[in-house]
Amino acid sequence: MSSMPTIRSRKIAVVQDIPIGRTLKFWEGLKEGKVYATKCKRCERIYFPPAADCPECLASDMDWVPLNDEAEIEAFTYVVIRPTSFQQCKPYTVAIGRLKEGVRVLAWLTGFKLSEVKVGLKVKLAAKTLEDGQLTYEFIRP
């Protein structure tokens, strides 16, 4: 028994149906093993995560572009105290990687020992389907 005073937090659970009609290509791409971004036809800026409308020039005319899977880690953190929805997971590493297109991606970093992870590490961005059917992406060894 701990001698430190504590209070119990409230249980938090939020489950929503998120409309994906305007970003369906992204989700279909993950199923196919591809990661897509959007590119504005007017100002040519690339967005990841994909944007249905351009935040820069406000255009709604976007193209879908597959992302190059080569990335370089710019920042990372090892998560020990996990959010409620990730309590079932062991501690994990998340990283921000810059892709050749210039976009930054925040994703789990898997397949590395923590001692191997450093800024400048070359990684590969990969689509993934989790055991429960959820679609995601992660950084892995090239």
How would you briefly describe this protein structure?
The protein contains one helix and eight strands; from the N terminus they run H-E-E-E-E-E-E-E-E. It is mainly beta.
Structural features, described:
A hairpin with a 4-residue loop joins strand 5 (92-99) and strand 6. The chain starts with 23 loop residues before the first helix and ends with a strand. The strands form two sheets. Strands 4-5-6-8-7 form a five-stranded mixed barrel. The chain has one helix and eight strands; from the N terminus they run H-E-E-E-E-E-E-E-E. By secondary structure, it is mostly beta strands. The mean pLDDT is 93. Helix content is 6%, strand content 35%. It has two domains: 18-66, no CATH class; 68-142, OB fold (Dihydrolipoamide Acetyltransferase, E2P) (Beta Barrel), CATH 2.40.50. It has one helix spanning 24-31, and strands spanning 36-40, 46-47, 62-66, 70-79, 92-99, 104-109, 122-129, 135-140.
Termini Cα gap = 46 Å
Tell me the CATH architecture of the largest domain: Beta Barrel
Percent of residues in helices:
under 10%
Overall structural class, as computed from helix and strand content, comes to: mainly beta
What is the CATH topology classification name of the largest domain?
A: OB fold (Dihydrolipoamide Acetyltransferase, E2P)
Gross geometry: globular
Number of strands: 8
Largest sheet: 5 strands, mixed, barrel
Radius of gyration: 18 Å
Proportion of β residues? 35-45%
Give, in order, the helices and strands. HEEEEEEEE
Number of domains: 2
Residue runs with pLDDT of under 50 for 5 or more positions: none
* Spatial sequence of strands, sheet with the most strands: 4-5-6-8-7
CATH class of the largest domain: Mainly Beta
